[in-house]
Amino acid sequence: MADRHDVEHFLSGYLTPPGPIAVLSARHDQNVALWRRTGRTVELVRVWEVERVSGQKHHHQPLYTPSRAEAFLNGLLATEGLDLSDISASWGTPSLPGHAEIPVPAGAEDFPLHSLGHLFSGLLMDSALFKRETVIAMAVDGGPDFVQDRETKSAWYAGCVSVRGRLAFVPVESPGPLYTAAETIFGKEPGTLMALASACRTRIDVDAEAVMAGVELFGGRRAPWQEAHRVVATIVSEARRQLAGREPDREFTDEENLQSAVMEVVQRCCELVAVRNVERLLEAGGVRAEDAYLSTSGGFALNCPANSLLMDRFGFKGLLTPPCANDSGQALGLGLLALYGTGALDTADILIDSAYYGNDLCDVDAALAEFAPWVEEVGDFSPDRFAEDLTDSVVAWVDGAAEIGPRALGHRSLLGDPRSTKVKDLLNEYKQRQWWRPVAPIVLAESAADWFEGDRPSPYMLETVQVRPEVRDAVPAIVHLDGSARHQVLTAGANPLLHRAIAAFHARTGVPIVCNTSLNDRGEPVVDTAAEALVFCIRKGLRVAYLGGRRIALRTAPVPETAPPTAPRERSTAYFAGQEQDRDALWQGWLDEGYTEAGMFLLSRSPDLRAELGSSTVERVNALGAYEAAGSPGHALMVRRFCTAHGPGAPSDR
Fold first, then answer.
1. Which H or E run includes 257?
2. How far apart are CA 295 and CA 119, in angstroms?
3. How far, in Å, CA of 323 to CA of 353, rounded?
4. What region holds the Carbamoyltransferase C-terminal domain (predicted)?
5. Is the dihedral angle over the CA atoms 312, 314, 315, 317 positive or is it negative?
6. pTM of the prediction?
7. How big is the chain by its Cα radius of gyration, in Å?
8. d(CA 650, CA 654)
């Protein structure tokens, strides 16, 4: 074992910087990563998604003061036997102790650090592969946050051609703003809209290529929001015209018919943008797709159909996309970018080949004691008993370190029998989501080719695959209208216990597949602990939970003289509670300096103006803010929303 003095630890954090800038620069899906360097070895130790700690879905709320931020980070580090004094450098969040600037690779100066963080989260998942192969990489999300930038960047979305580690950067477009526009118009999250695009039979006749002709979504000084909103609004208008008087799909509401028809076209528009990106990068690098790997990152990289289309169309050797491709992976990407920039990977390699870097499951015994009135029996894991439990039913499965990213990957999951539409409906009921949503499958790697077309591994549920026609009727719970499924391929090495369980289900039923969805209620982050899992099971009436390799049989009938939980279990809210006075004081400080609310909104998205605060005049910022607000009713609305979200009276549990 290495001497403690031979070991260095680093933090990379995607947190809102504490202090005055906190009310201007709130981030969402905040997260922190811990890294360890021992001699020539570098490893990722842990990734903490703040929403799993706080219970605030897509955690937005800042820690407004340095003392709050330090207490929070010390609380996380304590689980690894560390504190902030053990950290050699902290990257990604200004104002934290030990903060160090992230060196930017030559040629990447025109891109926001946010976009480069996304880019490197996929590019450096396997640093040995990065050093010996060709990789075509693109960071495609909604838009950067500019928290770490000192000037407005000429391009928002970073693309890269890496040939054996030699980097050439190229601006790319992002389809993300199209989904953001659809989310704004329809009020549904992107994942729901992606699923809805292939859920309903209603279609409209729209030429996606004609719609996207002349549309460019590079960002930079010409933000993509207005153009993206115009495109989606045009499709919506055309859908209303074509669907007027037409018989809808009666299994869906009229609004769902409209949304499905629109999103099918929006998806095609997004795919056209993604194809343009790949063609641009291949041409810029002078490389062939069949000789290269594809890396996608950023929120749009969670779009399974687009990933699969690019892989099928161009014939890449493989896909390099992290399970936390959206902003929940920023700490991962910023850490990899910093390790690369500081030279830590020049003589060392890092391999991130698992999703299991979240908190360990440490509270099973305590949770069983706390919820003893609802526990009927505790037993050892038995594969045959698991197969029996799952038959025509649903179980909770909680094991080891939690997955990182927004998708269930077999450590914090609800599992179900894929042969049963009743089970699909039950899973959707537990999750309080639309009845029509198929459930993603986990399939044993050795049997995947017998049930799904194609032979690419998909360990993180990031591709769409066709279910073989001859077996679709056997697994109706996982099949989309077009015959596809968003599957996770599971090897025995990646998750030994779950592999044994599914193998037993295969032996019992002939089906090597289980339904898999995240273990959480609607609007709740995925559960992190055994106690949170038991609360979910008791509230929903689940009969069986598997916790850390033990089978827990639960009572579903009321327990005399014991009130059941009626809401998700409260998490570690103390870190974030009672901050209203700090927030209001920071907000008032900007007003006292003479800034208007329109001026503050301008500062929130203008890194070049923030960099000049020491020398620029308040009057200049206010005048520019007023000019923009006066020029567009939509801009004035954005100012009001900014004040509602970040100023006095803002919700503390968004």
1. helix 254-285
2. 8
3. 10
4. 392-549
5. negative
6. 0.95
7. 25
8. 9
